[in-house]
């Protein structure tokens, strides 16, 4: 059951990143130069998230470590988006605040994923220790 929670929150993280990526490529964010890299970066995110999620579904336990690296990588992207919104964007204060709130919300969701993954790891270690040492 906990595996499903961890996988569900990873999918929420992916969807949130793709949504922020889409919004950052819109003219209303006014970052000066809008690079039209939504599709390549979203496809890369989809692949980087999908591989460890598929491995987790197949019950390969180290997949959560790989997924953790991916989520940390995309969390850094969310931090970068905050810096861009407040350093380079000429959008209204409302747009910058909304984008920042969404980014911070996704950072909180990613932190919650980490908490769930660490709890899952502890449960798995405890079960393995009980089996090994007969407690």
UniProtKB/TrEMBL annotation:
Name assigned to this protein: Uncharacterized protein
Taxonomic source organism: Levilactobacillus suantsaii
């Amino acid at each position: 059951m906990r595996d499903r929670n961890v996988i569900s929150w990873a999918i929420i993280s992916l969807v949130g990143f793709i949504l922020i990526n889409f919004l950052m490529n819109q003219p209303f964010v006014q970052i000066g130069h809008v690079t039209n890299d939504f599709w390549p970066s979203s496809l890369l995110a989809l692949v980087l998230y999908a591989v460890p999620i598929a491995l987790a579904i197949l019950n390969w336990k180290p997949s959560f470590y790989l997924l953790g690296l991916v989520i940390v990588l995309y969390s850094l992207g969310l931090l970068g988006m905050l810096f861009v919104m407040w350093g380079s964007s000429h959008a209204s204060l409302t747009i910058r605040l909304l984008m920042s709130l969404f980014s911070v919300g996704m950072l909180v969701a990613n932190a919650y994923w980490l908490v769930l993954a660490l709890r899952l790891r502890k449960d798995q270690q405890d079960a393995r220790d009980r089996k090994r040492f007969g407690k």
